[in-house]
Amino acid sequence: MWSLARAASSCYKSSNITPALNGFRQTRWASNDSTGNTLSSLQDILADAKSAKPESPLGDRFDYITKPGSSAQQTESDKPEFDMSGVAAYLQSTSYLGDGPYRLHINATFNNTILTLTSPKGQVLASTSGGTAGFKKAARSGYEAAHQATLQLIAKMQEKNLQIVNYHIIFKGFGPGRDAAFKAFVATYGNSCKQLTDATPVPFGGCRPKKARRL
Q: Given this model, what pLDDT does residue 62 score?
């Protein structure tokens, strides 16, 4: 109790020192009857505040409280309808996705297999991995994890109704999920594959390699 009293006294002293803090006062609205006098008094105060500052950006909010049914309140019938069909058509158009083949990036490491489908402009459309397929720890980099991740990617593509005419597969890494992801995807979209690229970084005369592991 002594510490609370000391903190309260320090706050009171600081409020006396700073004049700006004197304007903040706690106000409690209470009504002893059920006639709604408290609400009417609050509405009068808001109306006076609006008349004092008509240019305030809170004018619509004051109208919303003091004048029910004003322009600030919109019914469900007055709200504009938003059609998603136009947005979906634009997202499928070449102006958004661009011309050229889609790109399937297969990043197969010894810890995980990450699949990323992008548009011709490089925009990410869907992405899965061995972890999102439900595999944990070392199992994420296995053959079955890459296969299930590819099936999950195909399911996402079908949900988004992506019509892939041609695509370009880009490999990176030599993990065990490399061939599994390739075979599972080609089994569904085999006739649309136009190009294969191996983008695995290979050092040539670069930094000194790490010391060989001794077992």
A: 46
Domain with CATH 3.30.420.80 in the chain: 94-198
Q: Give the CATH class of 94-198.
A: alpha beta
Alpha-carbon gap, residue 44 to 41, rounded angstroms: 5
Per-residue pLDDT reduced to its tens digit, 144-171: 999 999 999 999 999 988 888 889 999 9
Token pair for 95: 């102006």
Q: Is the pLDDT of residue 131 over 90?
A: yes
Alpha helices in the chain (DSSP H): 2-17, 37-52, 59-66, 85-92, 94-97, 143-159, 177-189
Q: Specify the 3-state DSSP secondary structure of 119.
A: coil
Q: Enumerate residues 6+ apart whose C-beta is below 8 A from 71.
A: 60, 63
By CB atoms closer than 10 A (0-12, 13-18, 19+), residue 43 is middle
**Which residue in the block uniquely carries the two structure tokens 């899965």?**
128
